[in-house]
Amino acid sequence: MAHQARKRFGQHFLTDESVVDGIVRAVAPAPGDCLVEIGPGLSALTKPLLTRADRLVAVEIDRDLAARLRRTYPPEKLSVVEADALEVDFSAFGEHLRIVGNLPYNISSPLLFHLMACADRVRDQHFMLQREVIDRMVAVPGDADYGRLSVMLQTRYRMTKLFDVPPEAFDPPPRVVSSVVRMVPLPADRLRAKSEAALEQVVARAFAQRRKMLRRGLADWADDIDWDALGIAPTARAETLSVAQFIALADALTDAGRVGPGKPHSVGLSN
């Protein structure tokens, strides 16, 4: 029986073989790789990945699709984890993980942040997402798409947009264009904030009022910041600051005891 796509799971099944081939070539799986696929669905990617790799872990929330995967592939080749990806501890799958997926668009940003927790165990990630989300992920200071998602992910990954995917490559077709992105975790000696919680608070607050000059948007913290030392102009707005400047800003406020764990923070995190 044909599987009916379920809207509550954001299901859009990839059917275009040329797109499948493009993703598999980008991943370039090899024997011995520790592959994890999020949302395998009807196994458009699963099958070609398994022709090149020894085995794969598949995280699938849909119980019918999980059962279909178990019937189709032997357990020594495919280990099916029937669960919500947002609740899965990906670090339990091992080290040097290579994570792949056509991610549900309705949970893409929360899932990207969830995966940051296990980035130390990841070799690379290749995801298909809504194009506008990937444009935000890879945006640079000064771009209209540059925002909270850009800054937070760029503190942890080097990201490359690979190619676009049209709606007709899926069944049912989504209402948006998709893209494929490669995410490679930055090394242990990367520039990092003294407090990740502080950085999250500062970036969220800065972009919550992105049309305001930063010194006004962060007015209640302004006296604790040496703006000139940080190289932040009086008229600067959040979208003009580099990732390094956001880290320096968060560190200055951490040193002043104004942000960090336990400090009140009620700014929305959707930007």
TrEMBL record:
Pfam families: RrnaAD (PF00398). It is found in: Cytoplasm. Specifically dimethylates two adjacent adenosines (A1518 and A1519) in the loop of a conserved hairpin near the 3'-end of 16S rRNA in the 30S particle. May play a critical role in biogenesis of 30S subunits. Its EC number is 2.1.1.182. S-adenosyl-L-methionine binds at H12, L14, G39, E60, D84, N102. The gene is rsmA. GO terms for molecular function: 16S rRNA (adenine(1518)-N(6)/adenine(1519)-N(6))-dimethyltransferase activity; RNA binding. The keyword Ubl conjugation does not apply. Residues 19-187 form the Ribosomal RNA adenine methylase transferase N-terminal domain. This is Ribosomal RNA small subunit methyltransferase A. Its main location: cytoplasm.
